[in-house]
């Protein structure tokens, strides 16, 4: 299998076949992201994709799920994605889901009919960096879409039968914006009903604009207490029946997971318990190491 540079995938795609169909990210400008800063965006050739699928067919012929790489393969035209999906089904006939990272802008570039056609070819469970439901935060993070645009495009996706997993960055609004950010984010999520919710906290790596803003004080990160407050407000406002919450990323102040709405009260209790555990450091800001993992002290 061919992979160019570092290859990223969500933790819950660990058992999926990772198939490179692009390199880099077509946007590559989110303020907090350095994932593809050194990799230019390119489409993988059909010849290489077919060679990779032939190899996969030899080693994992019963594979039932494929995750397309890299940063936002949903930016490809509907025709190209359809051709890739057909090739996948030819070599791996048991595949029922073709997932990938996608952006709001990628959806905007496709008609309703194209979205339905892609769904019929098994494309589903897109992983989307929504990050926040607050325009001010989206602008600061340079996502290049507004909350209204996200609502519109995610609704079109749902109408086409394509489920989406939401990535949310707790604290993306910065200190002082916890309530506003959490309430607006819950409102957007409730209206668009992701099948999966993933949270992390702000942990910009060196080399991106948010890292510079953090260093110069233009962006002030939440304290431990503020992160827990924001998470509490978010969960108090969420109504996502049947959605799986994955909150185990090491950048989270509370690492937990569960099914919504079933486990919402339990998660709220865990947040309160975490606040008690961290009572002596609630006013401190996190110190982190790789992947934003928090050092608790
Ligand atoms: S967060 Fe995603 S969409 Fe934004 S630059 Fe990074 S890879 Fe691209």
Q: Could you explain the architecture of this structure?
A:
The protein is an alpha/beta fold. The chain has 2 domains: 1-124, Transcription Regulator spoIIAA (2-Layer Sandwich), CATH 3.30.750; 129-281, Transcription Regulator spoIIAA. The chain has 10 helices and 12 strands. It has an 8-stranded mixed sheet with strand order 1-4-5-6-7-8-9-10. The chain has a two-stranded antiparallel sheet with strand order 2-3. Strands 11-12 form a two-stranded antiparallel sheet. Strand 7, helix 7 (178-192) and strand 8 (196-201) form a beta-alpha-beta unit. Helix 1 runs parallel beside helix 2, helix 2 (78-91) runs parallel beside helix 4 and helix 7 packs parallel to helix 9 (224-237). The longest helix is centred in the middle third of the chain and has 15 residues, at 178-192. The structure holds iron/sulfur cluster. The site of iron/sulfur cluster (SF4) has 12 residues, from loops.
């Amino acid at each position: 299998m061919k992979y160019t540079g570092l290859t990223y995938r969500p933790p819950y795609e660990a058992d999926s076949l990772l198939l490179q169909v692009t390199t880099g990210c077509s946007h590559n400008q989110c303020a907090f992201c350095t994932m593809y800063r050194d990799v230019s965006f390119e489409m993988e050739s059909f010849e290489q994709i077919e060679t990779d699928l032939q190899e996969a067919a030899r080693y994992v012929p019963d594979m039932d799920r494929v995750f397309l790489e890299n940063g936002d393969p949903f930016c490809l035209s509907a025709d190209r994605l359809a051709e890739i999906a057909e090739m996948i089904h030819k070599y791996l006939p048991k595949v029922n889901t073709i997932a990938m990272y996608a952006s709001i802008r990628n959806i905007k570039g496709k008609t309703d009919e194209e979205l339905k056609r892609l769904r019929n070819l098994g494309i589903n469970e897109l992983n989307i960096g929504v990050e926040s439901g607050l325009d001010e935060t989206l602008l600061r993070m340079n996502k290049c879409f507004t909350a209204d645009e996200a609502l519109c495009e995610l609704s079109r996706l749902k109408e086409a039968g394509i489920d989406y997993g939401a990535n949310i960055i707790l604290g993306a609004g910065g200190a002082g914006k916890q309530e506003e950010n959490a309430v607006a984010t819950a409102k957007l999520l409730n209206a668009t009903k992701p099948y999966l919710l993933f949270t992390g906290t702000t942990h910009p790596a060196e080399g991106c604009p948010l890292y510079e803003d953090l260093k110069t004080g233009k962006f002030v990160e939440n304290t431990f207490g503020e992160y827990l407050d924001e998470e509490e407000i978010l969960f108090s406002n969420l109504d996502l029946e049947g959605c799986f919450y994955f909150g185990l990323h090491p950048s989270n102040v509370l690492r937990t997971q569960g099914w919504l709405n079933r486990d919402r009260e339990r998660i709220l209790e865990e947040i309160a318990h975490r606040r008690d555990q961290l009572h002596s450091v609630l006013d401190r800001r996190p110190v982190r190491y790789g992947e934003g993992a928090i050092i608790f002290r």
